[in-house]
């Protein structure tokens, strides 16, 4: 019952979004956002679905993405949820790979590129020609009960944001969706680094946090030292 309600809610929200896009009333709500954090948040939310299917959900983030960007976080999150959710839904084994990159054009325009690749069944050439059309469903969507709205909505939102959404796919190998959107980096400001000249010690973290936490502290102005355990940390 809950799954059916969520599917119905997603369909209604999609229809409302499409209606606002068609009527010309849709507007971007831009603000300063940590895009790398937004991507991690979406991945953490969808990770249980991938784990339930035995899939590897891999995320590779461009270091240049660190910091704040001016964009519409709600619509960026919407596209990510749709693309990664679809990849998990239609992939029965293997992995879903999410990659981010920062691109600079010849005109100096900066763009964020997000690529979602899967090891699913792939999309036939004749289906790729209409996969972004509304209510046009491919074999995978017919088999899994898809409505044929999600990718059309993503393409419309990408256009609203001044970006693009494209797909490459090989039957039996998988699919790769690439979303590119212009975004402006927020310049570093002194008031974002209130602890310049202060030193802190990070003790005992392992894995991804071991690199992420010192990076965040350094962004606040701290000089960061690392200790593997409390014994060494006490000495520092």
Q: Which properties best describe this structure?
A:
alpha+beta, 8 helices
Global mean pLDDT: 83
- Name the overall outline: globular
Residue fraction in strands: 15-25%
> Could you estimate the helical fraction of the residues in percent?
40-55%
* Count of separate DSSP helical elements: 8
What string, H for helix and E for strand, traces the elements in order? HEHEEHEEHHHEEEEHEH
Number of strands: 10
Can you summarize the main beta sheet? 5 strands, mixed
Strand order, main sheet: write it out. Answer: 2-4-5-7-6
Query: End-to-end distance, in Å?
Result: 56 Å
List low-confidence stretches.
none
By helix and strand content, what is the structural category?
A: alpha+beta
Whole-number radius of gyration?
Answer: 21 Å
């Amino acid at each position: 019952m809950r799954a059916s309600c969520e599917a119905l809610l997603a369909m209604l929200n999609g229809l409302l979004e499409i209606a606002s896009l068609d009527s010309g009333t849709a507007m971007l709500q831009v603000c300063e956002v940590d895009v790398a954090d937004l991507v991690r948040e979406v991945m953490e939310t969808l990770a249980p679905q991938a784990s339930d299917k035995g899939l590897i959900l891999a995320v590779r983030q461009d270091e240049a993405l660190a910091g704040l960007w001016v964009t519409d976080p709600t619509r960026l999150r919407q596209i990510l949820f749709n693309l990664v959710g679809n990849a998990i839904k239609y992939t029965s084994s293997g992995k879903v790979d999410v990659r981010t990159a920062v691109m600079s054009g010849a005109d100096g325009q900066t763009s964020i590129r997000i690529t979602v690749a899967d090891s699913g069944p792939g999309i036939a050439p004749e289906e790729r020609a209409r996969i972004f059309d509304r209510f046009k469903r491919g074999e995978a969507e017919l088999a899994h009960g898809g409505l044929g709205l999600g990718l059309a909505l993503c393409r419309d939102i990408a256009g609203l944001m001044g970006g693009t959404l494209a797909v490459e796919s090989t039957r039996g190998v998988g699919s790769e969706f690439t979303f590119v959107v212009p975004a402006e980096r927020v310049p570093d400001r002194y008031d974002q680094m209130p602890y310049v000249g202060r030193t802190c010690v990070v003790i005992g973290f392992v894995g991804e946090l071991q690199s992420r936490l010192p990076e965040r502290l350094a962004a606040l102005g701290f000089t960061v030292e690392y200790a593997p355990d409390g014994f060494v940390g006490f000495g520092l």
